[in-house]
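Chain A, query sequence.
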Amino acid sequence: MKTTIAVSAALALMTSMVSAAPNPPTAELSPPYQIAVNFIGAANAQFTQYFNTNGFGSTIYNNLSVSKIYNTGGATCYFYGIDGSFTVVGSGATVDVGPPQTQVYGFCN
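Chain A, predicted structure.
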């Protein structure tokens, strides 16, 4: 009986300690800002992918042959094509990809 009371008291104490733990500031929990980038191919075929603006890159898995890239704004973005193209797209700009090709990797900052 004494053991049951002691165990119950210990569990109650541990539960109150866990629920009393402070939450970290929300700034530490916020993900990096992201911007939408539109990749445009022939016959107005297109797709959108979001990129973090912290300089970390992302692989692009869509195999559309891209002829233009539109950056919706917020950072300058850099893209690498499957055949060696390198395209810089300023914030809010649309840039031609030459020659048109599948984009494989990009980053923004």
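The helical segments are 2-19, 26-29. The radius of gyration is 25 Å.
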